[in-house]
Amino acid sequence: MTxxxxxxxxxxxxxxxxxxxxxxxxxxxxxEGMMVLNDSGTAIVGLCDGRSTSDLIATLKGTYPGSDxxxxxxxxxxxxxxxxxLRDTSVD
Amino acid sequence: MTHPSTxxxxxxxxxxxxxxxxxxxxxxxxxxxxxxxxxDTATWARVFGEAAELGVVQLHLSGGEPLVRRDINELVxxxxxxxxxxxLSTGATVADEAKLEGLRxxxxxxxxxxxxxxxxxxxxxxAGAPSFDRKREAVLGAKRLGFPVTLNVVLHxxxxxxxxxxxxxxxxxxxDRLELAHAQYTGWAFRNRAALMPTRQQLDGxxxxxxxxxxxxxxxxxxxxxxxxxxxxxxxxxxxxxxxxVSMTVAPDGFVLPCQTAREIPGLEFPNVQDxxxxxxxVSAPVFQRFRGTEWMPEPCRSCxxxxxxxxxxxxQAFLMTGDPAATDPVCSLSPHHHLVDEALQxxxxxxxxxxxxxxxx
Lengths: 92, 362
Known about the structure:
The complex is a heterodimer. Chain A is an alpha+beta fold. Chain A is 35% helix and 24% strand. In chain A, the strands form two sheets. A three-stranded antiparallel beta sheet of chain A has the order 2-3-4. A two-stranded antiparallel sheet of chain A has the order 1-5. In chain A, a hairpin with a 2-residue loop joins β3 and β4. Chain A is globular and about 35 Å long. Classes of the chains: A alpha+beta, B alpha/beta.
């Protein structure tokens, strides 16, 4: 696995965000599995739409002023990519 | 009454037992001819809605061959509409381009294609029908359409020496996931156990091949390797993650089973979706409570500190090997019946009976 930062994240084919109204959970579902997202994870996943990671971070800073999510975002994106749930379209 | 502490996460919908293939380890019942009724489209749609309300996240559309259902696209669409993540397992012999496009359009999330062996003639012999070329076409076609594809290879003595070739083929076909799962010795596989059980030497070789592939970097290929439980050193597998704990199966005729092979256990009475809601069944059907939790357990399970880890193993396997579905799974080293596992392994090393293929007779 490379440890290069993810530059332009999108969810992998087959990975889907889902609101579970029964459990009241944000989830990422994928073949044979599921991951429960917390609020910040949900906000990040919602912005994995083809924009660059720096744009994603800038947008989060605009939404939540006074915080610097940069390190958390990079770490979270790396975790998702290592699980195969995310791909970096800048290296495709 | 033992109430479930959790809601089910997965529903296995066996849409039909009809299938063009005759795999000798099929998980469908031995007496297939007894179960020819199939639920109609509207009933399946209702079941999917009830499943979503009950908390099911993953829906597995399976069979038999689910693609022989003419309403398959409609069923996928209904499942997606109620928010379920839809997986479909196919033998792929009837998965032509038009069928795959229809599934894509209906919103299918994930396609699983079975492969019996990397050698075309061996694949076709094990499947009881020419199918290798069609499976390859289906996988390549599904990837062209943008599906995430899992290749499922059931492992046993007759294909276990070709793990490296399996991994190479999975890469060549550019599948996303490779599921290498050993045959589970219930149903047809139990009948064929002496012909399918691998040797320890084969297992070690296969394990080394998987580890070598992982160490070399799997380049986007996710490999899942499920070991055969007869060779477990100490404790049995946590079958189903516990009976009636996370999953349920609806058979083609609407009967609801805690596990797809539970029909093998005599004396269990299964409720039908035509008479009860899935929630009623999950919460209060006696068959779902029969082996739920730990209260049903005999010794050595009852006082074992593993009892909420492996849940006593597999009920079907316990019944098939000991005659008592409530016995500790004989795979467990603490089971008083553990010698049956050693004897089965010995028998398998010393004999090589012909395979008995899945047939639809009653």
